Amino acid sequence: MSHLLAVSDAIAAHARLHPRKTGTRDSKRVLTFGAWDERATRLANGLLALGLEKGDRVGLLAYNCVEWMEMYVALARSGLVAVPINFRLMAPEIAYILEHAEAQAVIVQDDLVERIEPIRADLPLEADRYVRFGGAGTPAGWTGYEALIAAASTTPPTVTVRPEDPFALMYTSGTTGKPKGAMRNHEGNALIALATAVEFGFSRDDTALLVMPLCHANSLYFALTFMYLGATIVVDDRKSFDPEGLLATLAQEKVTFTSLVPTHYIMMLGLPAAVKAKYDVSAVEKLLISSAPARKDTKLAILDYFKNSGLFELYGSSEAGWVTLLRPEEQIDRLGTVGREWAGSGAIKILDPDGKEVPDGEVGELYSRTAYVFDGYWKNPEKTAEAFRGEWCSVGDMARRDEDGYIQLVDRKSNMIISGGENIYPSEVETVIGTHTSVKDVAVIGIPHEKWGETVQAVVVLHDPSADPKAAEAAILDWCKERLAGYKRPRSIIFVQDDEMPRTATGKILHRTLRELMSRDKAMS
Fold it and tell me: Which of 250, 293, 521 is CA-nearest to residue 408?
């Protein structure tokens, strides 16, 4: 049987080769590779001792912290499947993911326990499979994370993990209002890590700072890359983005790489010149900007401040992995594109609705063929079938390719909104707003925002056209507050009459037309 080095094997190898080297750290804890390997083994054995078996799903709910590094390696070592959950989600959203994934256990940071307690009665988990870390003591009804580790064996579990076995269910916001679990396997982890290391020129001498949430594919892919290499991973464990704090960490830890969204860069570069001058960021050699379009002035400001660094831009997804890469020397000359296919991405096709390739310069749906593509959506064969044409995968993005092979994203088939790097599907927000008794119809769109890229705007038709709009807006926003994560909530609501909502001949709301109307009205005001 062929064997591909799993990420847990890589950590074990680095523990043997350089056990005292710092493997990962946050502001509170430092783990050498030796300690990281031992704690991951103990955690793996501790979870299996709870009665969990290979293939069982384990929910992970935490802010960024070094424990993510332990959990990902421990689950890989025990054959358990990680279900990372966005810490911004509210209790009903978390409940859906845990129930849909059929999670058999959940590991929760102390600060987020309040998101789990209200839904415990609805989750069919055994009492000792609620694991908690980060607080003082362990309240009744919870298993202590540190106690679980302390009591477990340091002998690696005798679980055979094969390349094709699932590593994680990465839940993405759903175009139909419910998240979908993208199944990613161990072989995909190794291949995307290898491709990333080769294309970026990373080595074991790098120090990477992970700022993006570790429940997201972006930070997970880069974490895997540096785990395989044996480089040092610094986890930014602040609960909210701190631009000066980031500069301080870059300087103090002599970070060589980090990945940020445009909003992060805008906030950081917007600091007073005197503040920015305090920090020596000369060690930074490579930077990534991704998840949302970036303006020319933003890119130039990044290059001006980080004088020793090259800037990269990636396009990808939880499903396909990385698909395109825009390299440092292309940033300005190819502004507005997301680069070309790269060594790890295999190939790209731009197809029309009939599955035929469109000529260069014309818009079609972007399909990619990557060696690390996902295995489909958990318990959703229909959506899995929609994502593939043979071995070619699409997440519904519309694009055009120029004669040199550079890809420009034109629109999202799903009307997805990107706010501060978070993906938001209008249908999910529309489903929540549409259940309010006063709402007859609703459309949710993204509107441009200088800092966040886009913000969520709801356009609502009320059952009672004569209702007080201020009272209706307050009631609907309160409704959303209880049911949606903060980044998904509309900041305001525009009320229109039924005949003012742009629709197709069959009555379907035209989101693109609505965005154009809102942009025009804003420009005229």
Answer: 293
Tokens of 279: 């920090």
> pLDDT tens, 192-222?
999 999 999 999 999 999 999 999 999 999 9
Considering the domain boundaries, does residue 492 fall inside one? yes
**Mean pLDDT, the chain, integer:** 91
Q: How far is CA 296 from the centre of its chain?
A: 25
The CATH number of the domain where 506 resides is what? 3.30.300.30
pLDDT of residue 428: 78
Q: Is the residue at 215 inside a domain?
A: no
> What confidence tens digit (pLDDT) does each residue in 126-159 have?
999 999 999 887 888 899 999 999 999 999 999 9
Number of other residues whose CB lies within 10 A of the CB of residue 20: 10
Local confidence band at 175 (pLDDT 50, 70, 90 cut-offs) = very low
CA dihedral sign of residues 292, 351, 177, 192: negative
Angle among Cα 103, 105, 111 to the nearest 5 degrees reads 110
Count up the domains in the chain and report the number: 1
Asked whether residue 423 is assigned to any structural domain, the reply reads yes
Q: What is the pTM of this model?
A: 0.84
Angstrom distance (rounded) from CA 284 to CA 311: 10
**Chain center to CA of 86:** 8
Distance (Å, whole) CA 196 – CA 24? 19
Is 478 within the bounds of a domain?
yes
Extended beta strands in 261-333, E state: 286-290, 310-317, 321-326
Strand partners, 61: 85, 108
Whole-number Å distance between alpha carbons of 407 and 392: 17
Residues spanned by the domain of 476: 417-524
- Amino acid residing at 522: K
Burial class (CB in 10 A: 0-12, 13-18, 19+), 111: middle
